[in-house]
Structure formats: C-alpha cells, structure tokens
Amino acid sequence: MEYLQELQSEIEKVRNELNVAAEQDIQTGECYQTSIRLDQLIEDYMQYTKDKVHYRNCW
Known about the structure:
There is one protein chain. The chain has 59 residues and is mainly alpha-helical. The protein is built from two helices and no strands. The protein has helices spanning 2-23, 29-57. Helix 1 (2-23) runs antiparallel to helix 2. The longest helix has 29 residues, at 29-57. The chain starts with a helix and ends with a helix.
C-alpha cells in the first residue's frame, strides 16, 4: 500500500509541475520530459492496481 501512496504523491507532484508550466505558457524540452514522466507514473499506477486486483481475484 505504501508504494501506491508514493505513486499517487509523485503523480500529483508532477501534474502540478505541468499545471504551472501550462499556466505560464512554458513550452520546453523539459516540459515534454515531465509529461513523459507523468505518463510513465500513471502507467505504473494502472499496472500496479491491475496486478493487485488480479492477484486478489486469484484467491
């Protein structure tokens, strides 16, 4: 459960970074890399929850 909370926290942090960049109309390679990082975090979150649900259903 701790891993899931860490992922959620990191997702919020990165999302906030992107929100600030969007509000300031910043368009740089760094923003692109941050967006990719957010995508990866969300993918990790989805995979973790999928695996957890699948594992629970096996019992």
